[in-house]
Amino acid sequence: MSKNQNTFIKKQKAELKRRKQKEKFEKKLERKAQPKDGSLDNMIAYVDEFGNISDTPPAPPVEKKTNSNQSNQNRVKTNQNYRNHE
């Protein structure tokens, strides 16, 4: 007669459990060995005008130059028109 199958299965399950625990412990040691860099610079992400996420900050927007003489002339004209209607 052969031995009971239950003892063989129990041994296999125990061996599998030990192996899994050993692998889990090794993974834990690997995680602890890795340097942690939780600085704010590494966590910041920027969104550009199209909605794309990037690590680098976007370029500052370029302002359009207006002719200051032209805008001053428009103001003078509107002020003169306002005074003429009074």
UniProtKB/TrEMBL annotation:
Residues 1-86 are annotated as: Disordered. Residues 67-86 have a biased composition (Polar residues). Residues 23-39 have a biased composition (Basic and acidic residues). This is Cold-shock protein.
